[in-house]
């Protein structure tokens, strides 16, 4: 590797002692002498280069400049009485001054608070002091690609929705502002980490069904999904939530957890809105390195909404049913994973068998033994690097555009440890895992796990040679009460008390984040809450399709819906 520049030695305060200290962290001793002087000069040179970049003016990619809005971009903290579920983080009222389409006109939308909205802060669900040392949250100078696209499509952006602390929980108790409540039952989880997005959409759906008026609701929302963070909240909240094929929707302008896992996806009360929002968000943006040669250019994006409508309304021939020709596979191992309740297992199995069959689809059992290891492969493939991305804000070796206004605190200190242990010990676990795994396993095991991802993908793809759609339970249970977070008469709330309720929640969802297959939560009934039989909450079924066949997943959900209606 060439050396681009040699600095003036006399302009640097670095000494041989600084060099030797850096070397000692690598287990190397560099004695005083000519070698030390030469290596010092090289360090001084790279220090000068980095200071030059540090002091230079930042660059905002033109396509990420905030969309011109009809009114000035202002925001406000929601009042407690207007935020009873704690689903909002910041409120606004933004519409594009000159929208380029009417696809989302009349739709209100919330954006998960790890996705940049120009003129609003981005808190990633955590504490202000962990994001900025002066206590003042900086506002975003960019619109994430998906934000620009929904505004250009005529949506009214109502604000940022609360998310879990560092987006690192499949439940909804860890946000710095407090727990986000399930739209159906206060005090119960709405799922995470797109907790606020799901609650806001579900609240609007419930309002429409009951005629109740409430200020804290939207028609549609955008969430992020690294292990199930769109689908799990959708399952607990009784709405639809899609994790699209990896690389279909650009992640540009959203805070990453790990690039191979990062997805953005739509949440909505109905399938038509899922298709519509997917169509608006999808397509290559020229910035996100997650997108592949398979990613469609904007003009190549399928017209998901129209195609779904055509499918649902197509005139059927005599004897033909909507699901004729569709083969649905019930993924055997997904119903056997630890933690799936009998009620959820039975509800998903029975509704899938009866409703798909009623609409003319063929339903069969299919075994994929490797699914049992899916969440383990997910962990091994990403845990070593996740701390660097989500906690340290590091870049990787490929070109990327990270949110320019966010600088998370690193290295951690006792105050950071105490705050996060009190609210979300999962992120502390991620922090601790990084150095431990580096020392005891190194990158070789992570690299092997990446190869196992290809094996897992191949196992699912082999199954798709026999079926068009796989079915699994989504969340393993109905929503549960928030865990005890504070000390009380029982004593201090322990780390394991806070985390045990989340163990196994993403077992059926996380594998498809690493393999990239599209997966959709479909509401399929209600179940009783253990120890509270009078309380019933939603159950979700997950539909998985071949990569890049997101439309088939949407059509399969429409077949399920038709079967449901026929069975009534």
TrEMBL record:
A molecular function (GO) term: catalytic activity
Transmembrane segments: none
Domain of life of the source: Eukaryota
SUPFAM superfamilies, sorted: Amidase signature (AS) enzymes
Domain annotation Amidase: ranges: 98-554
InterPro entries noted in UniProt: Amidase, Amidase_dom, AS_sf
Pfam families, per database record: Amidase
Protein name: Amidase domain-containing protein
Species whose genome carries this gene: Penicillium atrosanguineum
């Amino acid at each position: 590797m060439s050396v681009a520049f040699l600095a003036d030695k006399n302009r640097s305060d670095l000494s041989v002692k600084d060099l030797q200290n850096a070397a000692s962290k690598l287990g190397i001793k560099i004695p005083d002498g000519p070698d030390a002087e030469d290596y010092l000069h090289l360090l001084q040179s790279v220090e000068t280069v980095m200071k030059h970049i540090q002091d230079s003016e930042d660059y905002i990619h033109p396509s990420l400049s905030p969309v011109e809005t009809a009114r000035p971009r202002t925001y406000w903290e929601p009042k407690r009485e207007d935020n009873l579920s704690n689903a909002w983080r910041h409120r606004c009222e933004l519409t594009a001054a000159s929208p380029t389409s009417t696809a989302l006109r009349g739709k209100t939308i919330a954006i998960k608070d790890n996705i940049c909205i120009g003129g609003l802060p981005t808190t990633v669900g955590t504490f202000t002091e962990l994001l900025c040392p002066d206590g003042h949250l900086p506002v975003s100078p960019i619109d994430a690609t998906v934000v620009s696209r929904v505004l250009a499509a005529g949506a009214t952006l109502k604000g940022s929705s609360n998310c879990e602390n560092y987006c690192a929980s499949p439940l909804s108790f860890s946000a710095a502002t407090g727990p986000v409540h399930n739209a159906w039952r206060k005090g119960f989880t709405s799922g995470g980490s797109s907790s606020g997005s799901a609650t806001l959409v579900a609240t609007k759906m419930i309002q429409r069904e009951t005629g109740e008026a409430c200020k804290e609701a939207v028609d549609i929302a955008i969430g992020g999904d690294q292990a199930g963070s769109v689908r799990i909240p959708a399952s607990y909240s009784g709405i639809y939530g899609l994790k699209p094929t990896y690389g279909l929707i650009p992640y540009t302008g959203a805070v990453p957890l790990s690039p191979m896992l990062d997805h953005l996806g739509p949440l909505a009360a109905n399938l038509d809105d899922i298709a519509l929002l997917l169509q608006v968000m999808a397509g290559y943006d020229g910035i996100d390195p997650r997108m592949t040669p398979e990613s469609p250019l904007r003009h190549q994006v399928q017209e998901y909404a129209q195609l779904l409508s055509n499918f649902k309304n197509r005139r059927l021939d005599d004897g033909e049913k909507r699901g004729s020709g569709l083969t649905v596979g019930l993924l055997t191992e997904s119903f056997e994973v630890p933690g799936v309740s009998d009620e959820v297992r039975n509800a998903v199995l029975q509704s899938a068998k009866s409703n798909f069959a009623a609409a003319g689809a063929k339903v069969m059992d299919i075994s994929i033994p490797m699914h049992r290891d899916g969440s383990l492969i997910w962990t091994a493939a990403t845990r070593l690097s996740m701390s660097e991305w989500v906690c340290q804000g590091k870049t990787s070796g490929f070109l990327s555009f990270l949110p320019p206004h966010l600088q998370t605190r690193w290295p951690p200190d006792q105050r950071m440890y105490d705050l996060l242990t009190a609210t979300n010990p999962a992120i502390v676990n991620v922090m601790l895992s990084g150095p431990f795994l580096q020392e005891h396993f190194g990158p070789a095991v992570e690299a092997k796990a990446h190869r196992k991802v290809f094996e897992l993908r191949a196992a699912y793809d082999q199954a798709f040679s026999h079926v068009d759609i796989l079915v699994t339970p989504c969340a393993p249970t109905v929503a549960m009460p928030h865990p005890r977070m504070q000390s009380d008469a029982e004593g201090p709330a322990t780390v394991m008390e806070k985390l045990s309720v989340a163990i196994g929640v993403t077992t059926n969802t996380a594998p498809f984040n690493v393999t990239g297959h599209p997966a959709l939560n479909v509401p399929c009934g209600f179940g009783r809450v253990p120890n509270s039989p009078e309380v019933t909450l939603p159950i979700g079924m997950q539909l998985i399709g071949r990569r890049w066949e997101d439309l088939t997943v949407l059509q399969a959900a429409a077949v399920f819906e038709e079967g449901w209606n026929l069975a009534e």
